[in-house]
Structure formats: structure tokens, C-alpha cells
Amino acid sequence: MAGLATPDQEAPGVREPTAHSTPARAQAPGTDRRAVVASPVASPSKRSITVPSGQRIRGDLSDPRQQDIAMRLLSSAENSTLDWTARYAYIEDIGDGRGYTAGIVGFRTGTGDLKTVVERYTTAVPRNRLAAYLPALRKVNGTESHEGLDPGFVPAWQAAAADPAFRRAQDAERDRMYFTPALSQAKQDGLKVLGQFAYFDAIVTHGATGLATLRRAAAQVAPPPAKGGDEAAYLEAFLDARIALMNTERARRDLSRIESTQRVFLRDRNFDLSLPLRWTVHGDAYEIGT
């Protein structure tokens, strides 16, 4: 599946359940959380961007514009900003027992996906500052330990974010682990863009195992559209199952990414995530407009 178009590339090419969406993450200085945007090539500092006339957006997340919207929705919940492209350098330990959380979708030292990003980057650029930490990353996989990583790994990650090859490595691993499987499974279930985003958001936060669990739980309540079910009823069941799962997880208590975001779109029956979109997460209001 084609990845998102980012400023330095035209188009770039599972982990266990995690808990990396905590309220009020540090926001980049000067970032306007309510910037109104609609194009992956738009400057995030602009308040209003119009989708060029005559450009039709495909009805699924394989379209770069729809992917960009999905990433902005995700970033509002994960990082309290719509400017997801500013998060390549992000890294911190959020205290959830999975080590460092970093990058555009919260790759983890404790879940193995951060290690995979560094491995991909090192394949492309063998002489890089992060390559020296690969033995330590393999050792801490599955733990919350920083052994062998401190104090140099954090500044090395932040410095690497200036390298387009490193950003491409993050994009490619996001697509391989999250976008592509979420889109594939959502299409299997007959879901439109809203459902595809719901699966993407779920696999990022709960992993592949978590998404599989949620699909089974939802199907027990209402069949998916691919099996003759009503899409709204199925998505309601899916979101109900996700709320129940989130309530069992460490460091996951804010439910606004579901209740005042995805349920808002579902209540409006906006299955195609047509613009404009307005939602609230962690108490902050956002808009993606035309």
C-alpha cells in the first residue's frame, strides 16, 4: 500500500497491545492545535486549505489525502496537535511499562517496533548514530528497561529525525505494521473510511492482537457489512468493545478519542469522513476543513 506523501518524499512504500495515548502530551512550541487543513502538502501553520477542485479522493485510506486526515486525527489524540509530521523526533518514556515511546505513531522500545524502525533505517544508512544502539534495543525488547540506551539514545533519535531516510523508515514501518493491515481487515469487513480509521486507531493503540479481539467482540453483537450487517450497528459494537478494552489497560483512562471523536462521526453517519470534520479530544477542539 502506498504511504503518505511527506515534504521530503513523494510516496513511501505487530505489536502487542500498547497504551501510549496519554492526555496532554507536550505540544511543540508554536503549534496551532486547531489549524484547519485538508491537504498532505499543506503547511500546518495555515488555518485554511482548500482541496483543489477536480481532484477526487478515493473512498479508502489508500488515498494519500485520506491517510493524511487519518494521521491528523490520530495525532490529535496521541500528541495534541494536527501537525503529525512534526512528530518524527518525538521520544519520551510515558511511564506505561513499555520503555521509550517515539515517532509518528508511538513506536516502542518495549514492543519491538521501534527496533524495527532503526533496523530499516540502518539498512538504508549503515553509518548512523542509532545503529550503535541496536544490540541494546534487542535486549530491552519486551521490557520497560533503558539499559544500554541512556543517556545517548534520546538525542540520537531526535537528531536522526532531520534525515529524510529516517523519516521514510518510520513511514514504511507505520504502513507495514498499521496502515496496511488495518485497511485490509476493514475492507474484509466491508467498512468505509470511518471504519477503516477506527481499525487503524485501534491497531496503533492495541496492536494486531487487540484489533483481532475487538473484531471478534463486535461481530458477536452485530455482523459486519460484509456479512450482511448494518455498518452503523457494527461500528457501535466495535467502539463499545474498544471502550471496554481501554478501561482494562494501564495508563488508558481518557476515552475522548472514541466518545467525542469517532462516535461523533458515527452519529453523523459520516462513513466517508467527508470534510469538514470537527471533534474534541482531551478537552481540545479540532477542525479539518475545506
Question: Would you mind describing this structure in some detail?
Answer:
It is found in: Secreted. Its main location: secreted. Aids in the defense against invading fungal pathogens by degrading their cell wall chitosan. This protein has helices spanning 64-79, 113-124, 134-140, 153-160, 164-188, 193-221, 231-246, 256-267, and strands at 91-92, 101-102, 107-108, 277-281, 284-288. With 290 residues, the chain is mainly alpha-helical. It has a single domain (64-288), classed as Chitosanase, subunit A, domain 1 (Up-down Bundle), CATH 1.20.141. The strands form 2 sheets. It has a 3-stranded antiparallel sheet with strand order 1-2-3. Helix 2 packs across helix 5 and helix 5 (164-188) packs across helix 6. It is globular and about 50 Å long. 44% of the residues are buried.
Describe the SSE topology.
Elements: H1 64-79, E1 91-92, E2 101-102, E3 107-108, H2 113-124, H3 134-140, H4 153-160, H5 164-188, H6 193-221, H7 231-246, H8 256-267, E4 277-281, E5 284-288
Antiparallel strand pairs: 1-2, 2-3, 4-5
Low-confidence stretches: 1-56
The first-level CATH class name: Mainly Alpha
| Average pLDDT, all residues | 83
DSSP strand content? 5-15%
Number of domain modules = 1
Under CATH, the topology is which? Chitosanase, subunit A, domain 1
Shape: globular
- In the CATH hierarchy, what is the superfamily? Chitosanase, subunit A, domain 1
> Roughly what percent helix?
40-55%
